[in-house]
Amino acid sequence: MKKAILCLILQICAFSLFAQINTDRVLAIGRNALYFEDYVLSIQYFNQVIKAKPWLAEPYFYRAVAKINLDDFKGAEEDCSLCLQRNPFLVQAYYARGIARQSQEKYSEAIADYQKGLEFKPEDRQMLVNQAVAYIQKKDYNGAEKVFNVLMEAHPKYSMNYLTRGAMYLEKGDSIKALADYNKAIEMDPYYAPGYGNRAILHYQMNDLKDALTDLNEAIRLDTRESGYYINRGLVRYQMNDLRGAMADYDQVIGMDRRNLIARFNRGLLRFQVGDNNRAIEDFDVVIEEEPDNYMAYYNRALLRVETGDYAGAISDFDVVLRQYPNFLSGYYSRAEAKRKMHDFAGADRDNWTAYELEEKMRKERLAARTGTATADVSTDSKADKNTQSKEENTREQSDKNINKFNRLVVYDKEQERRSKYQSEVRGRVQDRNVRVDLEPQFILTYYEKPDPVKKIVYYDKMIEDFNKKMILPRKLLLTNEEAALTEDQISRHFTSIDDYSSKINQNPTDANAYFGRALDFMLVQDFVEAIKDYDKVIELDPSFVMAYFNRAVVRYKQMMYDQSQMTSIDNDLSSMSSMSFSVGKKPQTQNNNPVDASTAMLKDNKRAYEHEMIVRDYDMVIKLNPGFVYAYFNRGNLRCAQRDFRAAIQDYNAAIERDPEFAEAYFNRGLARLSLGDANRGIADLSKAGELGIINAYSIIKRMMSNN
Question: Nearest-5° angle of CA 281, CA 287, CA 218?
């Protein structure tokens, strides 16, 4: 009996140990996915840990972070609460819950969360900024000013303090103080585009169009991909009667995002004004396709169809508008004109008579309202139009549905504009948003990539093309340095694919292609340990399998970067969840003199040196087997930049460029490496070439460097 009990105890202990190792591993894979911004996948892993060990706090916290990134703020708030029930001392959970609540407009609760977090970390910059913003959103400006006082005393050199407080003063209507703060923010950080973007809005509101245009020009030079700057500049140019310039700005926005409805609608109006009727109709077609209830677009298209002789189409559009706005006088008169041109004189007379009766009714009601003898059931549209006289009478907010403003340019809603001033602090990823200069990422062989509307490059290699022609894998392999996060369906398919490959391997354990396919699946679901094991097996079975060496090096690099990110404490987990930052001219930190810390640091350095060596060996083997594979040189250059061995990195980028003179990313990274070595002239020349080849962020760095010289 004693032996049986002892065996049972040992079995229970063994099972518990296995479960512990298993949940730790699943949690690590989930954090891996979170680090690489694969949020849907990370949630699935955290779900598994929570199901196995619901008493742990960390998986709820990390799942909350993933949900914030997916804009599931309610779910994130609930997860943070569950986390804090289990561990009330996890400071970043208060911070994350504050963001989730703030994004749901629960400002008082968010402020309380930030205050609780500040009890543990009294000078935490992000929590102070977010707390100040929450006070502003709550319209408690006195409370916000008190937080700003603490913030500026603790972080006097942080330009965002002034930018955020300037936005607050602008909301209060104190344009003088707002302008002073914006000026100070730009003086402290002249390379931060939102500073100029926010000041441009203030200049526009002060009717200082020239300075608004100057600021928007600067914002666009610093951030060429922000469509809002082009839309605002288009509006400023329109107010300055520069229709050609306004049109060019809307063209630029639509070139970046063909479904940007503000740019489409406004360009349609401008084309209407200059008589480019057919192309104006095309713009309104897109608006209506994307937004079928945009009745102003219908009305403008109807007027254009009359101009182009499409009277039947015009009448159809007028019908849609008048069903929604039965008191719209201009609609009846316009439809009457279209019917008359189709020789439907009876229909035209009916519309004219309807409009006349409606106008008489509205006139009597207005007269009665003025004498106080009626409740004035006047057309909302007409009243709104009478009360909307301002200096911006040729614009309307996007949410303004007053049909009488059909021919006004669309601008962002004031509420949306207000949110955008604080968005970088309280929305999106929960991580440090200091402006960074990043290397172009390493290349990888995968099935998916992010679409890039600007840099439309297809990366090609004959070896991969030949492999794809054999149709060994279920999908085409792509070379990319812009990996896409998986959707739920894709995640499910790859887990199923792992099982399918496992069955094939059981039937034929020497099938290198099956191991390679399964390694790709493991890699895509962020299980790097298993992916590396499978790549090892591929290489064992076929030592000439170049793509296995290449992807194993990439996965090892990812694992190394993830492991380094985990050396920080939980308090820094959120801010570390971003790609490797590459700071030009930054010196490595010095080690402290504590013997225990020095010993630990030495072990970490040895481990890191070993990992680097293993990755380099893989790239060396790729280059030996396929000397023309430029992406191996590029990736090895990135690895050497991470080691701060910039001279060796430059040699690798040189080799890549020699083999592919149009390799934009290699020029960009070589430029950064040269800048790090103080070689400004050649560094800027490389960045210029990278910008010419499609990496537009290079131009903002060039401007930054030129301003410093």
Answer: 100
Q: Rounded distance, CA 137 to CA 426, Å?
A: 11
CB 221 within 8 A of CB 704: no
Q: Is the confidence at residue 425, as pLDDT, over 70?
A: no
Round to whole Å and give the CA distance between 483 and 36. 9
Q: Burial code of 431-440, b = ≥16 C-beta within 10 A, e = fewer?
A: beeeeebebb
**641-644 — which CB contacts under 8 Å span 24+ positions?**
641/439, 641/582, 641/669, 641/672, 641/673, 642/561, 642/580, 643/612, 644/588, 644/676
Query: Is the torsion defined by CA of 390, 394, 395, 399 positive or negative?
Result: positive
Per-residue confidence at 408, pLDDT binned at 50, 70, 90? confident
Cα–Cα distance between 145 and 436 in angstroms, integer? 29
State the DSSP string of 313-360. Answer: HHHHHHHHHHHH-TT-HHHHHHHHHHHHHTT-HHHHHHHHHHHHHHHH
Distance CA 224, CA 212 (A): 17
Strand partners, 445: 479
Indicate the range of 386-395, 505-514, 607-616 predicted with least confidence: 386-395
Crossing angle (nearest 10°) for helices 664-676 and 697-708: 20
Angle among Cα 238, 241, 244 to the nearest 5 degrees reads: 75
How confident is the model over 690-704, as a mean pLDDT? 74
| DSSP structure class, residue 410 | E
Q: To 10 degrees, what angle do helices 175-188 and 193-205 make?
A: 160
Would you state the structure tokens that stand for residue 580, as one six-digit string? 């490797």
Per-residue model confidence (pLDDT) at position 637: 94
**Residue closest to 264 by CA, chosen among 398, 356, 372, 380:** 398
Question: Which of 340, 293, 336 is CA-nearest to residue 318?
Answer: 336
Which amino acid is residue 519, in one-letter code? A
Q: Quick check: 516 pLDDT over 90?
A: yes
Contacts of 671 (CB under 8 A, 6+ apart): 682, 683, 684, 685, 686, 687, 689, 690, 698, 701
pTM above 0.85, yes or no: no
Tell which residue, 273, 361, 355, has the closest CA to residue 318. 355
Ramachandran region, residue 427 (left: φ > 0; alpha: ψ -120 to 50; beta: rest): beta
Q: Which amino acid does the sequence have at 490?
A: Q
pLDDT at 561: 82
Residue 23 has pLDDT above 60, yes or no: yes
